[in-house]
Amino acid sequence: MSEPVLRAIGVRRVYGDGTAAVTALDGVDLDLHPGEFVVLRGRSGAGKSTLLAILSGLDAPTAGRVELNGRPVADADAVRRGRVASVFQSFALIPVLSASENVEVPLRVRRVRPDERRRRVAEALAAVGLAGHALQRPAELSGGQQQRVGIARAIVGRPSVLLADEPTGQLDSETGRSVVDLLVRLVHERSMSALVATHDPSVAERADRVVEIRDGRLVHHR
Ligand SMILES: Nc1ncnc2c1ncn2[C@@H]1O[C@H](COP(=O)(O)OP(=O)(O)OP(=O)(O)O)[C@@H](O)[C@H]1O
Description:
GO terms for molecular function: ATP binding; ATP hydrolysis activity; transmembrane transporter activity. InterPro entries: AAA+_ATPase (IPR003593), ABC_transporter-like_ATP-bd (IPR003439), ABC_transporter-like_CS (IPR017871), ABC_transpr_LolD-like (IPR015854), MacB-like_ATP-bd (IPR017911), P-loop_NTPase (IPR027417). This protein is of the alpha/beta class. The chain is about 30% helix and about 25% strand. The chain has helices at about 50-55, 75-80, 100-110, 115-125, 145-155, 175-190, 200-205; strands spanning about 5-15, 20-30, 35-40, 65-70, 70, 85-90, 160-165, 195, 210-215, 215-220. It is globular and about 50 Å long. It binds adenosine-5'-triphosphate (ATP).
């Protein structure tokens, strides 16, 4: 099998200290490979969001480490360079910006040249089926379309890892299914590694592999 893109090695995360301490993750090991759509399950409070935050470099483990292509993911560096991108339950779009301006944000942060930005934004919007909606603001789009904009923003930097926290949580089941179809297709076509936290069994059905957090540890299902 190919080398893992992202590795969690003995990741532990304890919130607070003393008697108030909560151990959210207690020695999590996980390898994500290119082209793999992996679903992360676990009951509410199991630590799914905590693990995603640590894998993206936005939060630091109390112990253990995360490696991206064999190097430490530190200080959100990988996020800034666009190697790890996230999709959110609430879409997290900027309301005053159009769809294309929202998708452009990560490229502006990375100071990509304007002509290159325009080309890549158009390509990302086309990839999610929204070429005709570039000028609409989030409030002028349906929930499913807003999540597609969120996905376009995530893929515009050509990440090697895509992390998603309940990406279908605010969508009806049919819209959610089409968003998952899109995610699965993009992950396979672009050989990204995806880790998708969800309670939604229909998302787990589409997974190449399912892992579950239980008592702070990862249980590997298939
Ligand atoms: N900033 C924080 N301070 C203290 N405890 C926290 C903090 N963030 C999370 N926790 C605790 O860590 C544990 C894991 O939380 P986390 O949000 O990762 O769970 P989750 O699996 O994503 O849950 P859900 O499915 O409800 O979103 C919970 O017990 C939670 O209360």
